[in-house]
Amino acid sequence: MKSIKKAIKDLPVIGGLAKLVYRLIKPENIYFSSYWIDKYIPNEPITIVQIGSNDGIRGDPIYQLVKKNKLWNVLFVEPVPYIFERLENNYGDEPRFKYENSAINEDGTNQFFYSIDKEAFDKIPNLSEDYNQIGSFYKEQVQKLSEGLVDEFIVETEVNCITLSELFNKNGIVSLEAFLVDAEGYDWKILSQLRLNQFKPNLIVFEYLNLEESERKEAINYLKKDYYIFSFRIDFLCIRKDKIKPKDLSALKEKRINEKQ
């Protein structure tokens, strides 16, 4: 008897249809956090908090999803003033959106923040807008990520800072379905403030690329009791153990972080 694979090769039309069906059943984008956010966060009146929202569009995993899911309530947090203005313009003034022009730190005192001056995009020909996404409490981190190309345009700005608890209290956050952090090396210091005994979102996504190895391990240890953790390029995707479906756990087995770390 011919194998299914051989039969498909012998019938190219059917083979093409089979491939299409396969892609619909198992899309190629399962290694993007947006796929899982879309799958596990229903279009219901739930709350999402995004720390380090940038302009809300460029390289953003939830922009299209937020536009599609009209019942989601989202709190966007971005410290750089001119980027924050773009963020507000890109999402608009729908009542379901809240905005915080602040950075999250550990004690709530104002702090210097380093980013790329918007003049750089006028002075350097063809400079990618991706450089708008580089911002950190650590100047050396900005220099590293920009590879020295825009050193003369790195600006130091004193930004308003609050703790995560203060952010939640200020904005009336009492429940949380998804928590996203992109803070260029400060991610663990923010994530560590999330009280899992009070808030246990279905999904947590945070960037690990710029963390110290010790911080990565601390983050994994902090989450591994309640979450399966998967490595996606530069991010960790964390899905609650009591929410994940067995078939999804199997589909992501190659990306799963060893809990013994």
Question: In words, what does this structure look like?
Answer:
The structure is a single chain. With 261 residues, this protein is of the alpha/beta class. It folds into three domains: 29 residues, no CATH class; 168 residues, Rossmann fold, CATH 3.40.50.150; 49 residues, no CATH class. Helix content is 33%, strand content 20%. It contains eleven helices and twelve strands. The strands form three sheets. A seven-stranded mixed sheet has the order 3-2-1-9-10-12-11. A hairpin with a 2-residue loop joins strand 11 and strand 12. Helix 1 packs across helix 2. The longest helix has 14 residues. It is globular. The N and C termini lie far apart (47 Å).
Output the CATH topology of the largest domain. Answer: Rossmann fold
Unreliable runs: 1-27
Note the total helix count: 11
Q: Please state how the strands of the largest beta sheet are arranged side by side.
A: 3-2-1-9-10-12-11
Helix content: 25-40%
- CATH level-four homologous superfamily name of the largest domain: Vaccinia Virus protein VP39
Question: How many strands?
Answer: 12
| Series of secondary-structure elements, N-terminal to C-terminal | HHHEHEHEEEHEHEEHEHEHEEH
- Sketch the major β-sheet: 7 strands, mixed
Q: How many domains would you count in the coordinates?
A: 3
Q: Report the radius of gyration as a whole number of Å.
A: 21 Å
Range of strand content:
15-25%
Shape: globular
CATH class of the largest domain: Alpha Beta
CATH architecture of the largest domain: 3-Layer(aba) Sandwich
Question: What are its keywords?
Answer:
three-stranded antiparallel sheet, Rossmann fold, single chain, globular, 11 helices, alpha/beta, seven-stranded mixed sheet, 261 residues
